[in-house]
Amino acid sequence: MDAASDAATIIQIAQATQQVLNAGLVYAKRYTNAEKSCKLLQYDLRCVLATANIAIDALTRCSSLGKDPNIDDRLIQWFSSDEPKKCLDMLRGMEGLITGRNRTQGVLARIRFAGWVEDKIKDAITLFDKHRAYFHFLLSADIWNDIKDVKERQEVAECILNRVDEENKEIQEAVQTVATEIAEDRDERKKEFDRDQVTSFLQWLDGLDCTIKHEATHSLRQPDTCTWLPKTEKYQSWRGGGNPFLWLGGKAGSGKSVLASAVIDDLQRGKIDEEVLAYFYCDFRIERSVNAHEVLRSLLAQLLRLAPIDGVDCRDAVPDLVQRKEKGASPPNDINLLIPLVLSAAKLHRLPVIVVDALDECRDVEKLLDALKQLNDGHIWLFVTSRPE
């Protein structure tokens, strides 16, 4: 094993950990209701940072892990696994969750996303907890048989954080400095972003494209028709940040799909800053469009494809799905697997909006209804059409 290469990896992990801590501090200063979440975020990451620094010290003193008797065998095993890379990817994903720009406009938008920053920090904590197993080595202080040293390093890290807090009287300047560093690091990672891999991943996911169906439905609409719906109180309330779920019912042949196409066009024309739209048409004449799993896979693919390339690979939101592809498996058809994947992909966006037309034409409509209920989490805005029954 190359100790220099492994040292470079652990240095990247330490740097990524510090960037997550810095991002949390910046947002905690901007939003006082995020302070509690920030403290929870720091708890484990300080230990990770301290232990990573110990690993760096050990690795810089040897030329080969396998030949140095002072290096713990468990460290060798850890670097032989894929966990260091997973740790680094996870930390970058956490930073991406915290450092997203908030450009929502208008009073209603501000009300709608009150507390959103704290939620982002909580999302980062949830992501960390979900994949805590990747960090088991870095969270095990006794791995070095030197608990005292780990404790001292944690105290040093805590003193640094406290000093930053005490000396941060000129908060605007400090925020700008950290924000610049984060932006520079994001730009560097953006250069490394492999668009071809993402394209290959989305092709593998094979989400049904409803563009042609939308264009065909749009062509059925007569000029100056369907203009009444966006003017209704319920629709305007939905667009203005009221109830996140809007259902349009109607008998067969009453023009629900044409109205749905009008809603899609209205959403595309009047997009709020950072709003994204994913849509699906259920149609009994199209075999693939009448299965609940096809609906969810299509929405998942659209939300991933629409993710902004701001330094965070959209695939980071669905690591289990990436592993599935790498193992040579087919994309999932299990509704219970797809629902959390769609929710994770939606969190890549500030304002995700989903339109699903003709639920009643879906063969397993009960499964689709249950899935939409779970997607109605307050973050995703939903518009659906179906027959009254």
TrEMBL record:
* Swiss-Prot/TrEMBL keywords: Coiled coil, Repeat
What PANTHER family does the database record attribute to this sequence? AMELOGENIN
Domain of life per record: Eukaryota
Q: Which Gene3D superfamilies match?
A: P-loop containing nucleotide triphosphate hydrolases
Organism in which the protein naturally occurs: Paxillus involutus ATCC 200175
Q: What is this protein called?
A: Unplaced genomic scaffold PAXINscaffold_15, whole genome shotgun sequence
**Occurrences of domain Nephrocystin 3-like N-terminal (ranges):** 224-387
**What positions belong to coiled-coil segments?**
157-184
Database matches in Pfam families? NPHP3_N
